[in-house]
Design a protein that fits this description.
It is found in: Membrane. One of its GO terms (cellular component) is membrane. It is a multi-pass membrane protein. Its main location: membrane. The structure is a single chain. By secondary structure, the chain is mainly α. It has 3 domains: 231 residues, Clc chloride channel, CATH 1.10.3080.10; 216 residues, Orthogonal Bundle (Clc chloride channel), CATH 1.10.3080; 40 residues, no CATH class. It has 23 helices and 17 strands. The strands form 8 sheets. The protein has a 3-stranded mixed β-sheet, with no helix packed on it. It has a two-stranded antiparallel sheet with strand order 1-4. A hairpin with an 8-residue loop joins strand 16 and strand 17. The longest helix is centred in the N-terminal third of the chain and has 41 residues.
Length: 674
């Protein structure tokens, strides 16, 4: 076996094997072809869930059936609601802190930018960013190693049956929360989504088990959920609630857990996760309705679409069948660039691991990883502050008129807040037609790079802004954002990749839309209004997201929920499908690649492996086809001399442990040890 296969057998406690059919009956529908029961932690005494594998004629099994209670599910729904509420409050808190820190950072340098003092502005932005990155990276490296970088591959591996230490303890929760908030606020090209999935899973685990060894808390409530199957269900719901809270997309959160995170699924878990995502989104929306920057603004409980929908698209466009042609092109481009992003990110992570492993070990060896994060921040800050200097100021067309289908209603494009960088202040006046005009100018590169990624995506998705971003600014931002976000992913900070994926796709989607505008011009009639760069920016965002993650159903629903653009549903579906098919032709998804890179065992849906450029179905083989005939084993009690001899005479890194349950019993497999 190789190291990855040996790690699959590792467990913290005494294991036992269970037949796959019994495992499916016990834990629900199994998306994997095989599962190892001994990978589950057995921290509690044997519970009712662990007796289901006994034969039906067993007396112990019949006694368990007699004592089992049915129809007692109110406590499970109560816990799901509590987990959703807690995750929603955490999501609200995360957004508020990040927005406040970003606003504070750029308010400090606003006057320096207006005066053209870019060097001092760079020093201030870098200084504040360094303070945040040093704390963020230090927490990951020295406080909670399980928090690096996003925790999402670890959650996927755990829910597939792999035991991972320290993944759900309180130190990991605190460190991941603070680290991801500071990393995003510092200006690194990353997002909150991956860490929020991890944080939601931790809350799902902690609130359902009601005990913590770190804090010394062991509450005598709801003890019937302290088993592996129920624990996994609450972790799955918490992970879905994390996505629902950060995107305000409850259906998307549910489908994300079904499509990407969870390996074991049934209809009961779907309903409960649905309720958990509902409570998470409702809590985040309720708190965000009246609080902004931790300041009460009134209108508590009034859900404004502009605040609730993350990238709200106001002007929906009628779609022509010709729009499917550039959509297919965007899908192919998303698959190609997504596969390139995955390949480049995995190579960077491998080089990172090889470089740090080659350095001499010392108590301060982890500081080398911290210095890499500082270097990434310096490059990112230099790009965001100095690059807009080379771009001129561009007038803002704040009142554009478009006729709707009835040729009578006129819509004025609302004036948006754009970073003016060093451009002159604007003046405004009211024209004879009653429309308010302005001579405001803005810097295209500053609008795309200076503000956070969410604001940049909102600019790119906006409809009716055909010529506000040119080829030069879009191509420049695409090149730098692609490289820097790929470098940042996997560094020693808790960070996510969803916002960078959406942003990168929106940039090249906008470029394709701009090419169509250059060919056909700005169309104002109802049959040509679909030629809009904002429409193709949203399609491009979905295509690149799919090209990297290979998500389909959940991604389509998330895109509709975060934009409110139901008119583009078919175009988004087509782009997502094409991007996934093209990306799968070159490599696996980013999350699957990270699972292999981190040596986290994962049993896929189909038991297929690639061997010598051929695909082999593992169901055609038996265990003896891959087993060594003379296995080196360890007993439960060994002396140091025999262990030292075994380590010196073998080259592999994992050994089976055997023992006798009873003195007269044959030796049975107990687990493996590294």
């Amino acid at each position: 076996m190789d190291d990855g296969e040996e790690e699959m057998l590792m467990a913290d406690h005494s294991p036992g094997l269970i037949h796959p059919q019994d495992f499916r009956r016990q834990y629900g529908t199994n998306r994997s072809s095989l599962a190892y029961y001994h990978c589950e932690e057995r921290e509690q005494p044997v519970s009712h869930e662990s007796l289901d594998y006994l034969p039906s004629h067993s007396g112990v099994y019949k006694k368990w059936l007699q004592e089992k209670t049915y129809g007692k599910e109110w406590d499970r729904w109560l816990l799901m609601g509590l987990i959703g509420t807690a995750v929603g409050m955490l999501g609200f808190l995360t957004h508020q802190i990040v927005d406040s820190l970003v606003k504070l950072k750029w308010d400090l340098v606003e006057n320096y930018l207006k005066d053209g003092n870019f060097h001092l502005a760079w020093v201030c932005v870098l200084g504040s960013g360094l303070a945040m990155v040093l704390v963020s990276s230090s927490l990951v490296l020295f406080f909670c190693p399980a928090g690096s970088p996003s925790g999402l591959p670890e959650i996927i591996g755990y829910l597939n049956g792999t035991s991972i230490q320290h993944l759900f303890n309180i130190k990991t929760f605190v460190g991941t929360f603070v680290s991801c908030v500071l990393a995003v606020a510092s200006g690194l090209f990353c997002g909150l989504e991956g860490p929020m999935v991890h944080l939601g899973a931790i809350l799902g685990c902690g609130l359902s088990q009601l005990h913590s060894d770190t804090l010394g808390i062991h509450l005598p409530f709801l003890t019937r959920f302290r088993n592996s199957a129920d624990k996994r269900s609450f972790i799955t719901a918490g992970a879905g609630a994390g996505i629902a809270s950060v995107f305000r997309a409850p259906i998307g959160g549910l489908l994300f857990t079904l499509e990407e995170v969870s390996s074991f699924w049934d209809i009961r878990l779907a309903w409960q996760t649905f309720f958990c995502c509902l409570m998470a989104t409702f809590t985040t929306d309720l708190l965000s309705s009246s609080l902004f920057g931790f300041v009460y603004r009134g209108h508590f409980g009034f859900f404004e679409a502009e605040k609730r929908i993350l990238f709200w698209v106001k002007n929906l466009l009628d779609v022509h069948v010709l729009a499917f042609i550039p959509t297919i092109l965007l899908g192919m481009l998303g698959g190609l660039l997504g596969a390139l992003f995955v390949s480049l990110n995995i190579k960077i992570n491998k080089l990172r691991m090889q470089f740090f492993n080659s350095l001499p070990k010392s108590p301060l060896s982890k500081t080398n990883k911290l210095l890499e994060t500082v270097l990434i921040l310096i490059c990112t800050t230099t790009v965001t502050v100095y690059l807009p200097y080379f771009f001129p100021c561009t007038p803002v067309a704040s009142a554009r008129k478009y006729q709707l289908r009835n040729n009578s209603e006129i819509i004025n494009q609302f004036k948006r807040e754009i970073s003016e960088y060093s451009c002159s202040p604007n003046t405004s006046w009211t024209g004879p037609d009653g429309v308010r005009y302005s001579n405001q100018t803005f810097n295209q590169a500053a609008a795309l790079l200076v503000e956070n990624g969410k604001q940049g995506i909102a600019y790119l998705f906006k409809r009716g802004t055909h010529e506000e971003f040119g080829y030069t600014s879009l191509c420049t931002a695409l090149a730098f954002y692609f490289v820097l976000s790929c470098w940042t992913a996997g560094s020693a900070v808790a960070s996510g990749l969803v916002i960078p994926m959406l942003y990168t796709g929106a940039l090249y989607g906008r470029i394709i839309g701009l090419i169509l505008v250059s060919i056909f011009g700005v169309q104002t009639n109802e049959y040509g209004a679909w030629i809009d760069p904002g429409l193709f920016a949203a399609i491009g965002a979905a295509s690149f997201f799919s090209g990297v993650s290979r998500l389909t159903i959940s991604l389509t629903v998330i895109m509709v929920e975060i934009t409110n653009d139901v008119q583009s549903l078919l175009l988004i579906m087509l782009a997502v499908m094409v991007a996934k098919m093209v990306g799968d032709f070159f490599n696996a998804s980013l999350y699957s690649s990270l699972l292999r890179l981190k040596c986290i065992p994962y049993l896929d849906v189909e038991p297929l492996v690639h061997h010598r450029r051929e695909r082999l179905n593992l169901e055609l083989f038996s265990a003896r086809d891959v087993m060594e005939p003379h296995v080196r084993v360890l007993h439960l009690k060994e002396n140091i001399a025999s262990v030292a001899w075994l380590l010196s005479s073998t080259s592999h890194g994992g050994f089976p442990v055997v023992g006798r349950p009873k003195p007269d019993h044959a030796q049975v497999f107990q687990g493996t040890i590294k």
